[in-house]
Design goal:
single chain; 290 residues; Cyclophilin
Amino acid sequence: MISPFLNIRLFVFYFFDEMVNFVYFYPYFHLLNFFFRFLLFGGGFFRTFAQNIQNMLKKYFYLVLVLFLFAFVSSVEARKKEKRAVVRIETSCGVIRVALFDETPLHRNNFLKLASEGFYDGTLFHRCIKDFMIQGGDPESRTAKKGQLLGEGDTGYTIPAEFCLPYIYHWRGALAAAREPDDVNPEQNSSGCQFYIVYGKKQAPGDIKKVRAMLDEKDIQLTPQMSDDYQMRGGTPHLDGQYTVFGEVIEGMDVVKQIQAVATDKNDRPLEDVVIQKMTIEQYSKNKKK
């Protein structure tokens, strides 16, 4: 049995040894190593447990380190390779990053203009429907009182529709423009500022069949690729060919998931405000201008 005095001496030795390593070399690994060495003095179950964990750390540390570095480098490279315009949306629930399609230049340029002017800063995601979408961009939401009905605020202009089927559609994560209904907006022009991000549940074969029949009546084709995406990824196929999709989420779908599930009132407004704190343009399109 190790004497208490020897225990203290060993503890002090390992403490200074590991603190030096913590500062200078692989901090997290050595901090854990120090912790498990401390457990070794406990004997019995704790000693065996500590030895096993310590051996596992030594065995797999470099593999984990390599995998971590690979993931980090891959993430950085992916950002470098992204040629589309990218906007960072900081919300009270986290960060969402969206890339804007060059195939929809009118919507892309308008969104970038408003974001650069701070138009969206301080506004709310004022309409959130679980398993469907989250909607924001109403300038009146910036000063709205609790429970106030929102959704009518706008810029005073609209944007001509830019449908890009069957290549761009309402898959989960799609960024699209809100608009007035067909009876007052038969051209299906988009709002100058309001937008929504699709969450959309995964569609069952029966759902796809019903949506296909509905879209066929409007001469909108649901291709096999679109059907597969909606079943595998989720989305809102019933909106295709009627609302302009002009971007997609490239990071932060966990934040979108969180927002779409918040508690809301009878008008789908969150009971606790979900604020767009700031929009920042991370980069403009690197593709040839369209």
